[in-house]
Amino acid sequence: MHTPMAFPDLLRLIDERTTAFIAAIDDLDAPVPTCPGWTVFDLVQHLGDGRRKWAAIVAAGPSDTPPARTPVEAPREGLAEWMAESTGLLLTALEAAGPDQGCWGWWGDSQSPLTVATAARRQLHEIAAHTYDAQLAAGAPEPIPAEIAVDGVDEFLMTCFSTSSPWPHEPAVVDYRITEGGSWRISMSANGARVVEPGDGAADASAEGAAHDFLMVFYGRGSLEPLKLDGAVHVLDQLGAWVPA
Question: 3-state class of 112 per DSSP?
Fold first, then answer.
């Protein structure tokens, strides 16, 4: 199993990716190809207000529901400063709470705990994905840095993918391997989908490639084409089309 990134590193990289995101902001009216219907301004609004929302969620402590709040509108003038302030509020809340404090999260059905550490991890990877979106809109996309992308594969599988919702097809096992070093085995059955220890048996299907390319597939921003596929490839297609209840 992959060891999640340390909490101080998560905070450092949230700040670093925010700086990269702000640097990519150019034409506010430019379309964002990976977010159909959005302009760059819409993307900044989404990311900035979302960080303010999560600052409030973390500050509220353990809860069954997120705190009520009114969305904050982004200004077109001083937008970069507003975005930096948004992330500053999030980082302040995360640092004050510490990694082990509980907090509300939508991932309660997953293999990730409902803690501030998980929230920080999810925040980093959302900011990283949207930084790629902003760079793409500016015509200069860069792969998600390997340090982030490798952790991002594990984070997506543990937080966003794993579920107790029944797998609607024949039970299957899939192996994912990244060229940077690391592998994951996914088991799907009527009991849901889980990341499991590799074991000795062969998987029904496997995919291998760079962590960035896996994230592009996971986040709906790329295809399986860059990955080396083996076995029952139709299972990978079923995974891509599956929307758990």
Answer: coil
Q: Quick one: which of 226, 228, 203, 206 has its CA closest to 215?
A: 226
Is 0.90 topped by the overall pTM? yes
For 151-180, letters b (16+ CB in 10 Å) and e give bbbbbbbbbbbbbeeebeeeebbbbbbbee
H helix or E strand, kind and range, residue 90: helix 79-97
C-beta of residue 146 within 8 angstroms of C-beta of residue 211:
yes
* Bridge partner list, 163: 193
Q: Phi then psi for 87, rounded to 5 degrees?
A: -70, -35
C-alpha to C-alpha distance for 70 and 217, rounded to whole angstroms: 33
The reported pLDDT for the residue numbered 163 is: 96
Residue-wise pLDDT for 164-178, tens only, equals: 999 999 999 999 999
Pick the closest to residue 15 from 71, 97, 94, 84 (CA basis): 84
